[in-house]
Amino acid sequence: MAAVQEVLAVLERAGFERLPKPLTVAGTEFDFEAAARGTRTSHDLVRVATDQVPHRRLQRLVAGLARSLDLAASRRPISLVVIGGVAPEDRIELERYARVLPIASTAPDAAEIEEAVAVLVPLELPNADLVHGSDPVNEVLAELGPAKATPGHILL
Description:
This protein is an alpha/beta fold. Helices cover 37% and strands 20% of the residues. The protein contains 6 helices and 7 strands, in the order H-E-E-E-E-E-H-E-H-E-H-H-H.
């Protein structure tokens, strides 16, 4: 269960909100190991499961959740983090209803979790004010030498 808590911690640092167990949608309860929802740039409903849940039960839970969200007219996409990985044939079935983010290890470290959930986390871009570049015309002139620069070079 420590791995589940670590996944939730990574998601919370990325701006997700932990949801209570069991999650109730349209009057139906869904008992996953954990859940979180995006609060800022991501609107995903993230479910966390381990490989301890039988694959058929997991498929029924995810399918039922998707149907309940449809009934509730929710526009939240479902992402499913599976700790301990998922068999290819099971993943195909799960992907009918959710984005599947497998973590192969049953005791993943923070780097493995961050890599698995990277699609849910907004990119951190450098501040445009801090990115310095030189003037392209000056770079061309430096390569050619000021005496060889023609109006065509400047236009380029």
